[in-house]
Design a protein that fits this description.
Length: 253
């Protein structure tokens, strides 16, 4: 489906805004995720890491830390519409994603009828722990909030003001309880392909991941060096490191 009024930026020259959840323990994951987006994008994008310490300094985030939060962006992600001045569309994505397709293909799916759009997984994780031993919790709509296209100008998303993001429960936020079901649009699962859960069906190109989500932990952690699609992530990392070294050498000269 294509946009009628172009407010997502795909038909204007304004870059498409992307906020990536940042965690100091996963800096490399963030860098590689970012690289995988920019390298393949045929449209201008602006990528901003969501850094909890910066948001605390700016007075936008004051929640007490909770041991059940597996990343620093568990709650800060819901500031996406606020950080976009409640205008246009923007994407939030976890840092543990590897993009394998042009983000324009996702932007082209944007439909102004919805307040948000995401992959609507029916998902129950097998593991009870994730990443570096942080406790895994199970709840309805698990993983839906890990990649969300926000219609920041939609009146219903005004509900996501800093006060609400800082005081509401995890259930309210992660289950999108400020919205009615019909205000939540769906995009194909390949845009949030859960490593260890979703499967590629041979001979069916519609099951080929466009964005792999290493939700259990990715190859940047020793325990997940051999997970599915690890080779793709490691290849992207090599490329990112090489380009970074080249740039730094260029500056030194
Ligand atoms: Mn994740």
């Amino acid at each position: 489906m294509t946009m009628s009024n172009g407010s997502n930026g795909s038909t204007e020259n304004k870059p498409f805004r992307i906020f990536v959840g940042y965690d100091p323990r996963e800096d490399l994951a963030y860098q590689v995720c970012r690289h995988s987006i920019t390298k393949r994008s045929s449209i201008p994008v602006s990528i901003t890491p969501i850094v909890q310490s910066d948001l605390r300094k700016a007075g936008l985030y004051w929640r007490e830390r909770n041991p059940l939060e597996s990343t620093e962006f568990s709650f800060t992600r819901f500031l996406t519409p606020h950080l976009s001045n409640y205008q246009g569309w923007a994407m939030f994505v976890d840092c543990d994603f590897l993009y394998l397709a042009d983000i324009k293909q996702l932007v082209d799916l944007i439909d102004d009828r919805y307040a948000i759009m995401c992959v609507q997984h029916d998902y129950t994780p097998k593991e009870t722990t994730k990443m570096d031993g942080a406790v895994q919790t199970v709840y309805p709509r698990k993983n839906w909030s890990s990649m969300v296209l926000y219609n920041c100008g939609h009146p219903k998303n005004k509900a996501l003001d800093p006060e609400t993001v800082n005081t509401q429960t995890g259930a309210f936020l992660h289950r999108f309880q400020w919205l009615e079901d019909e205000e939540i649009g769906s995009v194909p699962f390949v845009w949030n392909f859960l490593e260890g859960h979703n499967c590629v069906v041979e001979g069916d190109p519609s099951t080929k991941p466009k964005a792999v989500h290493y939700t259990r932990g990715g190859p940047w952690f020793d325990a997940w060096k051999d997970c599915e699609f690890a080779d793709l992530w490691l290849g992207e990392m090599d490329e990112y490191v090489k380009e970074k070294n080249k740039k730094e050498a260029g500056i030194a000269n």
